[in-house]
What does this fold into?
Amino acid sequence: MPAQPSPAPSPAPAPAPSASARPALRDRPFRLAVPPVSGMLRPRLVLTGVLVGVGAFALFCWGLALGDYPVSLPDVVKALFGVGDPGTLVVVRDLRLPRALTGLLVGLAFGVSGAVFQTMTRNPLASPDMIGLTEGAGTAVVAAVVFGWAGGLGLSTVGLFGALATALLVYALAWKGGATGYRVILVGIGVSWICTSATDFLVARGNRFQAEEALGWLVGNLNGRTWGQVDSLAIALAVLLPVTLGLGRWMRTLQLGDDVAAGLGTPVQPVRLALLLTGVGLVAFGTAAAGPVAFVALACPQIALRLAGTSAPPPLVSGLTGAFVVLGADLLAREAVPGTELPVGIVTGALGAPVLLWLLVRANRAGSGG
Amino acid sequence: MLVTLIIALLVLLSLLSVALGALSIPLDQVVRSVLGHPPSRLVDNVIWSVRVPRTLLGLTTGAALGMSGALMQALTRNPLADPGILGVSAGASFAIVVSVAVFGVGSLYGYVWFAFAGALAASVLVFLLGRLGRSGATPVKLALAGVAVTSLLSSLTSAVVLTDQDALDRYRYWSAGTLADQDSGDLVRILPFLAVGAVLALSCAPALNSLALGDDVAASLGRRLGLVRLQGVTAIVLLTGASVAVIGPVVFLGLVVPHIARLLAQFAGIGPDHRWLLPLSAALAPVLLLSADIAGRMVARPTEIQAGVLVAFLGGPFFIALVRRRKLAEV
Amino acid sequence: MSTTDPHPPGIPEPSARGPELRARGLHLAYDGRPVVADLDLTVPTGRITAIVGANACGKSTLLRALARLLAPRQGVVELDGTTLRSIPTRELARTLGILPQTPVAPEGLTVADLVNRGRSPHQTWWRQWSAADEEAVRAALAATGLTELADRPVDELSGGQRQRAWIAMAVAQGTPVLLLDEPTTYLDLAHQIDVLDLVTDLNRREGRTVVMVLHDLNQACRYADHVIAMKAGRIVAQGAPAEVVTEATVEDVFDLRCRITPDPVSGTPMVIPLGRHHHDGGDGPREAESEAESESEDAVPASVD
It folds into this structure.
């Protein structure tokens, strides 16, 4: 095709508008004189975020309404604001709210963390589980269960320490005059193997009840959550979420590769470390609260990316998608088999597989699925 | 030289494996018993009904896992691939818990066929899914399909295990990976599959050498890619599926051993020739597996630590050292 | 910060208006392996400089060091007399832009979005699309002829368009100094000339200092004001193309015998390689023809002069 070095009108056929550039949802710049704020308004991203957010909130309320003592949806919303009869208030706010909030926050944490990891490694299959965090947390929790250490601390705290200690170990082992994202992942794989087999050993060694308790945690579970778990997770999110969103600007340049990003004035190493820390922190606290809920961190950023039509997973929308998926999966887990409450991780794992396969087939059709 | 060394090592480890355990037998008695002059009935009984079958099981399944690991890494051209990628372990796990929970297979040994069938079914599913789309079963697509199928089956396994206590018990012992307490008949049952798998694998070797140069080059050298991949995958499934069904998912062995084999081949001046690497991996893997098994018996006497656990504990640090030492190409 | 008066080509006359980039006593290593040893270099301000040399002679390594992507083992790179290391990251990114070899855009990223990311050194968290940003992106798209393609995903473009999109990003960055690592790799001849013309425009119209690594000697001679020939991590010769690109230098740097003849279009030196099968005058017309063919359009058969 002939070169067109000048901006002269091109004889080439008019460019086909891509899916993201439909006129109604086209990106529009906005600029305010006072205060000097400007940016690009992305209607499709905003719309997706709002829709997914509203959907997540709807599932949240629905989850509060369902149970042995059904509460109508309007009463649920009223009860959230402290209005209603004492019985409903107790059921909604004291019994069901911790579980629903844990689901919401865990989904948010996993979704955002997945988006961070995938952007940082430029790999749609990267997820925080890959660097051994969840396995480390699992080993710590199972050890606590089998040896009976859990007593005073609670499994959540043990899981948190397990995850953070594993992250530290992986980072230290991957350090060799700097840590590349790739070496961190490889070392993480090695560490997670060791942790997995340690977990297997402990599960085989313990008695049946211990094994069942351990497996119940390992699968990812929202049953019987308390305010204690909600509090620590909420505090962690309140700190880490703004930091992650603040780093979003650098994520946009880092996405173009280290060299280009550095050329555009990105402090590559500090930003990567900060992203790693926030990503790890989010997952560690999320795992501590609900166990390793499978696939949320891997699949939700990819779903959000496709819904919003962006080139990298949008962190906040990924988080909202995560909340939507976890809350929805929990509803399904509670209601699918009457009489039993499956752990939420089983549902996300079973749902995540088809999503992954769909991504696979789609990538093939686009011709880029090497 | 290298060959003699490995054979000597294997003989030594086999003798140790027969000698050591809850009842330690002096080596001279082991040798006498093997030669047909047992010192006592008890010793003879322990050796022939427990220790020898266990050692033979370690030798064969170890060799199978090592060879299939080398084959997997050659087929995918990915030094991080292990045979578990094809969903073999997940399929076997799921089949075991289903056999206990749904079919009520009560006997300790009846589940082996289920496990093998599960492993086969899962890997066929992975291979078919990996073939979706235009360019056939490329390594990346196989890996993705493997991850997806593994995830689905693990979720289902968890669901069954959490609602059935017996399935949980069976599953958790199997899943740690051990050579202990296995039915000596199992070895005889899986042996034909291992033999076919080994023949298929070894006959792939020349094609793997061309494949190492890239798909296009291999094709231009007259290799039929689809056929080689099918043959390789079949060999992996037979070798891994049969081994995993009996001793549990010790697939980490298949990841680590080929790296050691390549390192040794380099020292011996053989280079990356798969006609050597496959047998070398097959010979080295039992060394690691038997060592882990013997160590597991000795460390926590009178109880045992499962060989699968120790393989990961020995192999994990090695793998990390490897990652730190070498510049691995980005996948 | 930028000048507008066009410089007549071929007369290197250092301009004092842009920042001056220089290296002193530079020792560079890659993975512990020394690549460049004790190198001194002053980049002519407001000019186009081409770095040429055989594979693995340290060209790209030098360029990376000039852009602070690689920390020197010894020695310094200075921008207007200030050590590169002591310049704040963002300030450096407003002065000096680099386009690495074959960068990869994430799937689905549009051209406009990519070019906009070039503005990030000028943006703050709350000011992401100022009037200056908009104008710079518009101008960069126009200069690279990509206005029509602004909404297309980069990964769907042809190789030449893709490379222009990346250059547009570097242009939008608005730096007075621009470093390009093999900007013509993987492009067909027409697109190569296209990119080099664009680079010349940026230099002549806006007075930007350009340093680029090039493989094609003839293109380097034609488009650069200043040529630096490197061999094994050292500078063998530098100066105006006519001074640097001689038969002796080419034989020294590339280990290749050749004839030099004036480019019939630009008058700059043109390299005609000899190889083992072709000697001047000694061969039949058949081989001379085939050589001309293989040299493609920008080379002219030896018989012209």
About this structure: The domain at 48-135+222-357 of chain A is CATH 1.10.3470.10 (ABC transporter involved in vitamin B12 uptake, BtuC). Chain A touches chain B through 52 residues (CB under 8 Å).
